[in-house]
Amino acid sequence: MRLATWNVNSIKAREPRLLAWLEEKKPDVVCLQEVKSTTEQFPTEQIGELGYTAATHVDGRWNGVAILSKVGADDVVRGFAGEPGFPEPETRAISATCGGVRVWSIYVPNGRTPEDPHYQYKLNWLAALRTAVAADLAAHGDLVVCGDFNVAPTDADVWDPAVFVNSTHVTPPERAALAALLDTGLRDVVPTPMKGPFPFTYWDYRAGMFHQNKGMRIDLVYATPKLAEGVGAAVIDREARKGKGPSDHAPIIVDF
């Protein structure tokens, strides 16, 4: 199975790029985040012409996640039990069984600043996600949780740790939440960087950050051990971050 995850930062803005990318890379399953669309706006027909079934969890202007699959999308669940809201639950998680593998596409809350109420919402959301994933693991042998986690697991996953002092994405509670998720029985599938020594997946649009490779690894793929041991290749597609009108994230492609 070839699985990909990509924060597209608006599927409307990125639709031509996404369709061309799907034709070129031919993933079996694609997890999308920050879709920013309604159900009616989502290009289900165009994606279907490429052989994909689309399962979506969207609500319009903000957030939104989806799973595209050529190998079926059964038992689709939008959101998860106990999911907190801000104040109401948002469109941040969707799961489905694709080709016998339970796949989650998630878009973790940003947190804004450690002093903002959104930060505690982020921690609460990650704690509830852990509980939900642990329950899903008990029911499925093969499982992958992937998407935009908005957390860099270690200092090696940001271009300069000093720049992020007192910022979200790197605080000990956020990183502890990721460690707790891994403790359910998952492994971090770290992709190979195409440039430089660090596997960054996100670069701010401003100040030429991408061209200077001043990025972060916040898009993650967590898989059960059996799947992780069967990884043939895992790469970050930097080419998809280039050119006119890209997302600020690059897709990760994993061949299981």
What does this structure look like?
- This protein is of the alpha+beta class and 256 residues long.
- The protein has a single domain, classed as Endonuclease/exonuclease/phosphatase (Deoxyribonuclease I, Chain A), CATH 3.60.10.10.
- It is 23% helix and 23% strand.
- The protein starts with a strand and ends with a strand.
Task: Give keywords.
256 residues, alpha+beta, Deoxyribonuclease I, Chain A, six-stranded mixed β-sheet, 12 strands
Briefly, what is this?
The record marks 249 as: Interaction with DNA substrate. This protein is α+β, with helices and mostly antiparallel strands and 256 residues long.
Secondary structure category:
alpha+beta
Count of domain modules: 1
Radius of gyration: 17 Å
Can you tell me the CATH class? Alpha Beta
Relevant CATH superfamily: Endonuclease/exonuclease/phosphatase
Q: At CATH's second level, what is the architecture?
A: 4-Layer Sandwich
Q: What is the helix content?
A: 10-25%
Strand order of the largest sheet: 3-4-2-1-12-11
Residues in β-strands, percent: 15-25%
Which blocks of ≥5 consecutive residues have pLDDT under 50?
A: none
Averaged pLDDT: 97
Count of extended strands: 12
CATH topology: Deoxyribonuclease I, Chain A
Terminus-to-terminus distance: 5 Å
SSE order, one letter for each helix or strand: EHEHEEEEEHEHEEHEE
Shape: globular
Alpha plus pi helix count: 5
